[in-house]
Amino acid sequence: MTAPAIPAASASERYEAVIGIEVHCQLRTASKMFCSCSTAYDGAAPNSHTCPVCLGLPGALPTINRVAVEGVLATGIAIGATTPVATRWDRKNYFYPDLPKGYQISQYDLPLAAHGRLAIDTSSGSFVVGIQRAHLEEDTAKLIHGTDSAGRKISLIDFNRSGAPLMEIVTEPSIRTAEQARRYAEELQLLLRTIGVSDADMERGQMRVEANVSLRPRGTEPFGTRVEVKNMNSFRSVERAIAFEIERQAVALDAGEILTQDTRGWDDTRGVTYVMRSKEDSHDYRYFPEPDLPPLRVAPAWIEAVRAALPELPAARRSRYTDELGLSAYDAGVIVAEPDLVVAFEAIRTAGPELPAKAITNFVIGDYGRALKESSERTPEGLVGRANAAELADLLRRVGNAELSRTNAREVLAEHLSGGGTVGKIVEAKGFRQISDRGALGSAVDAVLAANPAAIADHRAGKPSLGFLVGQVMKATRGQANAELVGTLLQERLDGPAAVAEAVADPDGVAHPDRTDRQ
Ligand code: ADP
Ligand code: ZN
Ligand code: MG
């Protein structure tokens, strides 16, 4: 037998991927879904957060967690879904040791939210992902497999997570690429965090993403056999796993294989998916209405109250930033993607309404964002909780007035964040005052040039050394020099005034090493 020839065109040209994403996320509630056990079990002793209800003991009766229901209602509103006037709970029956009752209380044909959508931006444009449903269910216990002291295989069970509220959000099979799938998951996480219903941390299992992937020849309608991929612990692995799966299925289909409806796991280290189980042994869940709970009526007034409490959603905020404040789509995207940056941006704008939005943007994305990343002790509001927004506005005002160099401003920020007092006090104590005087800077520039003949030679030979020389002048002036002016003076001396005019026309050139503008 000869192997079938591999067609020349790539998989993505010959086949179209059909992808649907299922996301499970833990809702941010104080107590579990159907009992009053606390959900703050992270790091707690195993089985210390349990009661007859979440242990599934006979005769225990569930009660509904209102906050969890409101979390799904809020999500439904945020994705433009509809909520039926009455929903219901159903039993999903299956046997597994992590499910003590032998069934999971879930929602089957009447989910709390249905027919929603989420718009995303990708490298090839924007795209709307259709969302089938969002429903509420309870989490399972945690199984821990290991060996005992005698080397025997044992499985331990921790019921702390058992009965924690879980929201499942299922998309239509409307996603077509691995990148779209990753972007959808990212945008969904941002949305859930913005409306405050979930911390949605993938690494901590608060948000679990599963992907259903099938292929069909381009230009054809019917869906192919789908494979479900699990165990992806980061956005990057979501994209990698789907890309791998698309390629794997294309090769298999080209080889004439009949695909089976498997559940596969993603091995992040090897970069492959592997069979976990085949759908042949998938269960018939025998859903039926939960007899221990009444149907749940959702009054329109309740939905309106939840809607009224929603904050501005990411998409609306991005449009406001670009349309009303004149931010670039890129800058708006960067700020909105990081709630801490949003808090800082808004707080500084309130404290300094006269400051240009662009200056606040550059600061928030640049120096502030870096300080935030480096800070180990951030407050729930980012650094602004510690750094008085009025002080940050004061800092930006001084930079804007050319009183303070950007380099010194960075130092003042660090000092202020570590409890060094007001910006005014720090500036005074350090004696910072930006040097913008051509004469004073000229002598500093001349001294640096005299001390660095090698850098001058490099520059003459066309090697980039201007940034280095600017850095030396900044060092010599304790960061107080106006870096733009230093660049200009250096160029005047090295290349003559004509070159300066040219460099000024190129804002990204080395004449402005202190800029962080991204547009
Ligand atoms: P299950 O509950 O068995 O996982 P669902 O019908 O709820 O099945 O579908 C789960 C996900 O699979 C949904 O996101 C759906 O859009 C997606 N899906 C359904 N059919 C296909 C297919 N042929 N290819 C890819 N995804 C699919
Ligand atoms: Zn309990
Ligand atoms: Mg599924």
Number of helices in the DSSP assignment: 17
Q: Assembly state here?
A: single chain
**Helix-and-strand structural type:** alpha+beta
Largest sheet: 8 strands, mixed
Average pLDDT for all residues = 90
Bound compounds, each kind once, are:
adenosine-5'-diphosphate, zinc ion, magnesium ion
Strand order of the largest sheet: 5-6-9-1-10-11-12-13
Backbone CA Rg: 29 Å
Poorly predicted ranges: 505-519
Strand count:
15
Compose a concise summary of this entry.
The chain is an alpha+beta fold.
Explain how this protein is built:
With 519 residues, the protein is an alpha+beta fold. The protein has helices at residues 11-14, 66-78, 178-194, 235-254, 300-308, 314-323, 329-336, 339-351, 357-374, 389-400, 406-417, 423-430, 438-451, 453-460, 466-476, 483-495, 497-505; strands spanning 15-26, 86-87, 90-93, 103-106, 113-122, 125-138, 142-147, 153-158, 165-171, 207-217, 227-232, 262-267, 272-278, 288-289, 296-297. The protein has 3 domains: 11-146 and 153-297, no CATH class; 312-430, no CATH class; 438-512, Arc Repressor Mutant, subunit A, CATH 1.10.10. The strands form 4 sheets. It has an 8-stranded mixed sheet. β11 (227-232), α4 (235-254) and β12 form a beta-alpha-beta unit. It starts with 10 loop residues before the first helix and ends in a 14-residue tail after the last helix. 38% of the residues are buried. The model is unreliable at 505-519 (pLDDT under 50). Bound molecules: adenosine-5'-diphosphate (ADP), zinc ion and magnesium ion.
